[in-house]
């Protein structure tokens, strides 16, 4: 399911709606079949920069439009919708399949696995379309893998922008792990004053 904006972005702070890019662990973003190594990182940016081409774009290898993009987050997120801005002349992706909290997926895995959700995409050159998720399935997302099987007839697939709308937890994943460790009971911390003698004894 896709929808268009029903408001003027000058009056509504769209950038804050699509601010999950700030929670992407950009250094660990990767893609399979990208023509330029590391170019997948360039498509994650602020909403107001989504149509800017100066920062580069993601493109598949010539004659093979399939792309697989792995996106890890610095904290668990809830994803409400996804926006994809593709390339011109039939190079926009025509379909999207997503997998959640699965690392190391390759093309063979993507073709054989059941996606959490799939969308038939439209050519969205102006960045006005967004695709709603089945929100209940997109809770506690630590990473997401985006599978673009094909383009609109182009020899390659081009992607200029990928945006996620949703919410992030306030704590980073490594901070949460530290807190879990620290709340484990430590027997040496559980001491009580004895009723006689005024000393301390360890609780059994």
From TrEMBL:
It holds the Pfam family PITH. It comes from the Eukaryota. InterPro entries: Galactose-bd-like_sf, PITH1-like, PITH_dom, PITH_dom_sf. This is PITH domain-containing protein. GO terms for cellular component: cytoplasm. PANTHER family: AD039 HT014 THIOREDOXIN FAMILY TRP26, PITH DOMAIN-CONTAINING PROTEIN 1. It comes from Arabidopsis arenosa. Belongs to the PITHD1 family. SUPFAM superfamilies: Galactose-binding domain-like.
């Amino acid at each position: 399911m896709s929808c268009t904006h029903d408001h003027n972005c000058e009056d509504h702070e769209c950038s804050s709606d699509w601010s999950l890019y700030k929670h992407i662990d950009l250094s660990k973003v990767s893609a399979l079949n990208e023509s330029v190594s590391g170019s997948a990182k360039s498509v994650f940016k602020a909403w107001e920069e989504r149509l800017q081409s100066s920062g580069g774009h993601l493109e598949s290898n010539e004659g093979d439009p399939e792309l697989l993009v792995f996106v890890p987050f610095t904290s668990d997120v809830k994803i409400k919708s996804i926006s994809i801005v593709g390339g011109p002349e039939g190079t926009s992706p025509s379909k999207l399949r997503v997998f959640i909290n699965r690392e190391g997926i390759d093309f063979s895995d993507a073709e054989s696995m059941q996606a959490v959700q799939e969308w038939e995409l439209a050519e969205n050159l102006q960045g006005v379309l967004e695709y709603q998720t089945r929100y209940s399935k997109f809770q506690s997302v630590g990473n997401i893998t985006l599978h673009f099987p094909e383009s609109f007839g182009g020899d390659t697939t081009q992607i200029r922008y990928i945006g996620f709308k949703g919410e992030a937890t306030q704590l980073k994943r490594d901070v949460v792990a530290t807190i879990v460790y620290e709340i484990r009971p430590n027997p040496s911390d559980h001491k009580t004053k004895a009723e006689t003698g005024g000393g301390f004894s360890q609780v059994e």
